[in-house]
Specification:
By secondary structure, the chain is mostly helical. It contains ten helices and no strands.
Length: 176
Amino acid sequence: MQNHKKLYTLTNIIIAFTILMYLVQINVTNGDLYFGLNVYFFIDKLYYQAISSMFTHGGVEHLAMNMIVLWQIGNILEQNIGKIRFIILYILGGVLTSFGTLAYMYYFDDFSNVVGASGAISVLFGYIALKIKEQRAGMFIYIILISFVPLLFGMNIAWYSHLIGFAIGLIAGFVI
């Protein structure tokens, strides 16, 4: 019975929903633009993008990488802080990260199409960095690596979303 409970965690449900949303995204014409976070949030008032972008990805590799990281860290964190606190941290943190990302894009007039769960996942890393002193240095190194190393290889990555999410996670650690 214990293994059955491990299968139905909120983290695993989020992962399943994210995979389902990716399948929807790739089967809708311009799905990445409709569901990603971009200038259409302002132009066409696509306000749902603040949440849908967390479930939209730039390819199977991007999806797999984010879901593996979410599965590893999410299940452990969910078990330690509880389902309610976890879902609030992930969803609300992800939405706040989207608004921070929009503010960055608007302020710097640097609009791109931001997709992926890594902003929300970065919230989890920020939370862990605040709450678990022994993990702090590792979390800071990790967020720097995932934010800037891909740029060295010419990958188009919303590094600012990672940093914004991490900062929101740090702040959330004081509240949640």
